Amino acid sequence: MTTYERYTTPDDVRRLLRLKRAYSSTSNPNVDQVDSLIEQKMDVIDSEMRTSFRLSRTREKHSIRNGSMSAFSYDGSRVFLGNKNIVTPLSASAGDSLKVYNGSTDEEWVGVKSESRGTGNFWIDDTLGILFVKNIFSYNNYLSIDVTYRFNGGARSTLSGAVISGATGSVSLTDSSDFPVQGIATVSGEVIRFNNNVSNNLTVVERGAFNTQTEAQSSGAIIFTLPQDIRDACTKLVAIDLLNSEDWSSGGDNSGDIASGQQAISGKIERWRNDIDKTYDRYRPTITSIR
Q1: pLDDT tens, 235-276?
Q2: Domain residue limits at 188
Q3: What is the pTM of this model?
Q4: In the chain, at which end, N or C, are there fewer CB atoms within 10 A of the end residue's CB?
Q5: Between the ranges 209-218, 235-244, 274-283, where is the mean pLDDT highest?
Q6: Are residues 160 and 198 located together in one domain of the fold?
Q7: Do both 77 and 16 map to the same domain?
Q8: Angle at which helices 31-49 and 228-243 pack, to 10 degrees?
């Protein structure tokens, strides 16, 4: 797993615990063990939120009972996908696919049939993760749906202008209000570093970070960044496991730098767990209405 795909880093955890020494190959725990724990906690977060804060791809197969389809329904028949925060519209060039059984074979719809609510053949409520299929008849007892899609629960926006390959400087977004002041972002598989965020403009200082491919980016391309509260939640989840209800200031390589000034560790863990629960509540899906 590359650094930009992580929700936190060993150094973030070390700073939260106020440890003097960085995790290394000889520390206890060692840096590989902390990295493994980070990956485990990322999976915990994704499971809790029913999404991922990495740009992820999945393939799912569903079926719809005959009679549930309507040739004249405005919204179409619902298919509840396994994740929310779907990247729309679906794009064949990005590897997305929607295959629907037409009576003899699985027919590809992405790039062939229209994707729009009301007049199209299908559409996706990207926030809730619901696929609506419409304007077709089923041919047997069950209609087969085979869908491949991308999803990302991070803050997202779109480029409001084209960006040439390798260029740094100001990059304009349609809305950067959910982006941090500085950090990293991903667009079309390329990772960029930025150190300022003002008036929907990111000041980009590095293109193709973490050995990703530098490419020309077109206007309207989707750009993602990891929300700070998700980073904080992952850092605290890892820290709680590392503490294992023991006072981290007890000595050894990871002795605390101001141990006598720290609160009792039980109170610290309780506060972190409350913070994590609040973050979960902000992101957990609540299917109360269909837009």
Answers
A1: 999 998 887 644 444 444 444 434 444 445 667 888 899 999
A2: 155-225
A3: 0.70
A4: C
A5: 274-283
A6: yes
A7: no
A8: 120
Domain end residue (candidates: 199, 225, 251):
225
Model pLDDT for residues 154-187, shown as the tens digit of each residue? 888 999 988 888 888 889 999 998 898 888 888 8
Q: 3-state SS string over the chain?
A: CCHHHCCCCHHHHHHHHCECCCCCCCCCCCHHHHHHHHHHHHHHHHHHHCCCCCCEEEEEEEEEECCCCCCCCCCCEEEECCCCCECCCCCCCCCCEEEEECCCCEEECCCCCCECCCCCCEEEECCCCEEEECCCCCCCCEEEEEEEEEECCCEEEEECCCECCCCCEEEEECCCCCCCCCEEEEECCEEEEEEEEECCEEEEEECCHHHCCCCCECCCCEEEECCHHHHHHHHHHHHHHHHCCCCHHHCCCCCECCHHHCCCHHHHHHHHHHHHHHHHHHHCCCCCCCC
Q: Which of these three, 151, 171, 187, is where a domain ends?
A: 151
State how far the Cα of 241 lies from the Cα of 32, in Å rounded to an integer: 15
Report if residue 291 sits inside a domain: no
Measured distance CA(100)–CA(38) in Å, rounded: 38
Residue 73 pLDDT level (bands cut at 50, 70, 90): low
pLDDT value at 289 more than 90: no
Distance CA 257, CA 191 (A): 35
Dihedral-angle region of residue 169 (phi above 0 means left; psi in -120 to 50 means alpha; beta otherwise) = left
Averaged confidence pLDDT in the chain: 82
Number of domains, the chain: 3
pLDDT at 38 over 90: yes
